[in-house]
Amino acid sequence: MNETSEQLGALETANQPSSQSANAERRPYSVVIVDDHAMFRTGVKAEIGRSVAVVGEAADADRAVAVVLRTQPDVVLLDVHLPGGGGVEVIRKVHEKNPEQKFLALSVSDAAEDVIGVIRAGARGYVTKSISGSELIDAIRRVAEGDAVFSPRLAGFVLDAFSGSIDLATVDEDLDRLSQREREVLRLIARGYAYKEVAKELFISIKTVETHVSSVLRKLQLSNRHQLTRWATDRRLV
Amino acid sequence: MTATDSSHLEPDMHDSVTAPPQHGSAVGDGMGPSAPRTESAPATAALPIAKEGAPDSGPGDAEDKPRATRVAEGAWLGGVCTGLARHLGWPLMVVRIAFVALATFQFIGVIAYGALWLLLPPGSTEKAPGLESASRAGLRDQSKPKRRIDWGMLLALIALGVGLLWIMQNTGLGISSQLFWPVAFACAGAALVWRQADSEQQKRWRAEAGGRAWLAPFVARGGWPALVRVIVGLGLVGAAFGIVIAQQGQISHLPEVMAMTMLALTGLAIVLAPWLHRSRSALNQARAEKVRADARADMAAHLHDSVLQTLAMIQRQAEDPKAVQQLARRQERELRNWLYDDELHEATLKAALTAAAAEVEDERGVPVELVTVGDCDTSDPIQALVRAAREAMVNAAKHSGADKIDVYAEVDEDSVEVFVRDRGNGFDADAVAEDRMGVKGSIIDRMARHGGTATIRSAPGDGTEVRLEIKR
Known about the structure:
The complex is a heterodimer.
Chain A: H1 2-15, H2 20-25, E1 30-34, H3 38-48, E2 53-58, H4 61-71, E3 75-79, H5 86-97, E4 103-107, H6 112-121, E5 125-128, H7 133-144, E6 149-150, H8 152-161, H9 180-190, H10 195-202, H11 206-222, H12 227-234
Parallel strand pairs in A: 1-2, 1-3, 3-4, 4-5, 5-6
Helix pairs in contact in A: 4-5, 6-11, 6-12, 8-9, 9-11, 10-11
Chain B: H1 3-7, H2 80-88, H3 92-103, H4 108-119, H5 129-136, H6 151-171, H7 177-195, H8 199-209, H9 216-219, H10 223-247, H11 254-316, H12 321-340, H13 349-364, E1 368-373, H14 380-400, E2 405-411, E3 415-422, H15 437-449, E4 453-458, E5 464-471
Parallel strand pairs in B: 1-2
Antiparallel strand pairs in B: 2-3, 3-5, 4-5
Helix pairs in contact in B: 2-3, 3-4, 7-10, 10-11, 11-12, 13-14, 14-15
């Protein structure tokens, strides 16, 4: 794990060389943890508590909405499976009142329906609960700064969902397609490359990588092709 | 594995505020929350698909025909045609045209369709147990994306229906005009009333009624629209009677006859409603019980076969942390597969790679993260590719010192690519001795023999990536 955190540290430096000193003094990002397992909340808090400020916790959808709206944290760590309608319900209700609130989905489920579902509801990233503390902190930072967080698996899902197997006649908007560059970026992420490594591989800046990923996220959320959801359910029939 | 990772494996770590799982009506037919609604108008929005019987599985795999069910996916009315087409293995359009054609013979098609709508069970969508249980307990989003009704298509259908009727009536093929309107009214009324019997609807009503089960028949039945539907339906049936009477020439008795009909119908409804409701809910309850019991038995068997065995082994090897970690990781992978993913049965690239990755994980104790895009059947070259990929994973686990291996496979129309990557020590590719069998023999040469290529990119301190490509 050390290597990863080193890389992420390096990434931070490369990303904002000028603001690094400011970063050290800047107030830590505020985070609300929403998960129905108390043990998991405690564990996450212990892991990330030094680097971010955990300003609230909630164990079900209704409380989560209340806490998030009251504290307005930079990032909400949101479990996908949650009493009261799941993470999707929380995102929907909070976004009705505060469309700017940023969510990072965190789940033990790798099921495509869950992943795509919560992203389409408005989460800005998806990571599994097996993520290491340092990776999670980096993901929080990235989401707080307005970027998207794609795990290799999510990148794989997206590539699959937007792959050529979809009926071309229905693809009429730019939203329904990934650009060549976006596809390249996603493929590298699916291969396990960190953003920094993707940038190096494609000879582009990290900011550009982030722009591409955010653009993919937008397409994923806005494309109204129902094949996206359908793909998620019937991909097992392949 | 950190401490937090294990928390999600605890079955019952909910704290006190956690709402108890509502064993709601969704259990009834073993359907998830996203169970297809049946009355789907032209299904433009996404609806999950019944698992059995892929829509594009042709007549070829007729040996295991799916049961005839109503299928909401792609349904125009009740999904009867779609379900029948799947069951019979016929093209969907043929079945639809057959029904329309039958409808021109004294409405046989319409009656058959209505009967099948009532009799066929709605197709069920099977899900991985973890997802199903999370859905049941209200842990997942229950709402489906809003269905947009395709008005154009609906209008076309209505126009088609009216046109057909008109032609039939005008050509004399249909029912005599004396009977036509009464029959039409009666049919419409009966359809409206029976529509309430659609089990899908009932399920939602019960969910809406919440705990007040006794109120359900009155309150929760879809609210006012349903009530209006019943009243209008009964009214139409009454009107049909009235017209028949009127046509017999006794027009003067019409008000009395209408009133009597209404009274009789109302009385019948009041007498029968509680009994109907009771018997129906008893039936549903029994079915739900059975489904629940089955699910519990499955779960118990699975826990016994897997988790319990692993826990026993962990206790026996408690002094060997590496072995414990390996066991825990294997158990996690297995449990996760069972809960959230379908097991892979067929001989496909994905299944083969998954198996290879699992083997390497178990033997070497290094997690392998596998992501696949697309899939294809295995063939000789593909098997060679998988073996080469496995060798690359073993090398990475053995020599790189990395704590994770990323494997990515992508299937194109004509080629398959696999990347095996680690962030470990790396090595100077040029300095590798010619006699190092591992890389040369088992990866590069093997790929070359099957007409593929293997490229190895590595530098000291920079990790290693092996890229394998082969034609399908």
